[in-house]
Amino acid sequence: MLGIIALGACVATFLGGLFALRFKDSLHLILGFSAGAVIGVAFFDLLPESLVLGAPYWGASTITSMVALGFVLYLFLDRAVLLHAHTDEKNDEQRARYGRGVLGAASLSTHSFLDGVAVGLAFQVSAAVGAVVAIAVLVHDFSDGINTVNMVLKNGGTHKQSLRWLTTDALAPILGIFSTLFFTLPERSLAILLALFCGFFMYIGASDLLPESHHRHKTLWTTAMTALGIAVLYAAIRAVNA
Q: Burial of 46 by CB count in 10 Å (0-12 exposed, 13-18 middle, 19+ buried)?
């Protein structure tokens, strides 16, 4: 069962990334959707899961503080990458932009790994709990693939580099699932990790993908795509948890 779920997560991620590559001429619309999807994952998936898992151990204020900490940590990481750029040196600026894309893609890949860990740990609780978590992971793995490719392409990465990161992101949940055969993670620690990633995704969506989607384009359709991204993730996660 775990092997089938791992394969499904890998395929869903690849399909999302290939979709982004196929329609890269409409990248601003896809970026708008991605921004909404990332924000939707943060608000409707990561935040509720961290609050539920952490309820026996942490207060809501602690969890939301970890979300804020995640946002600030990603802010500093992002700015640290940009500090390496010199506006009068084109090559340095391009390297800095790609570094920003790598930072975002690596964060998404790490999140995919933790998705796999969550699936594996859920099956340690029971098959029913594992199935619900697995469906939730599969639902947004498609958007993870889109987001990973977009993070690389919009920051000056090549088609080959985006495929490399897409492969990394697609393999991450497989590694995460099978890693749980060798360890267990306390719920209190998993809750904190999810809260931190919630902050990461809020920053990526609101401060990176969303502004870039409006760059040199009319905001009407990109705003509509952002709203659609949020709505799709909301409906999908609610359907899974119903």
A: buried
